[in-house]
Amino acid sequence: MSGAGYLSASDALPLLTEAAREAGEIGLRFMRDGARVFDKSDNSPVTEADLAIDAHLAARLRPVSEAIGWLSEEAADSADRLSRRQVWVLDPIDGTRGFIAGNGEWVISAALVEEGRPLAGVLYRPTTGDLYHAGRGLGAFRNGQRLSADAGMAGATRHAAGPKPMFDVIRHALPQVERTSSLSSLALRIAYVAEGRVDVAFASDASHDWDIAAADILLSEAGGRLSTIAGADIVYNRPEPVHEPLLAAGSGRQAAIAALFPQHHFPRRAKR
Question: Mind telling me which SUPFAM superfamilies this protein's record contains (predicted)?
Answer without folding.
Answer: Carbohydrate phosphatase
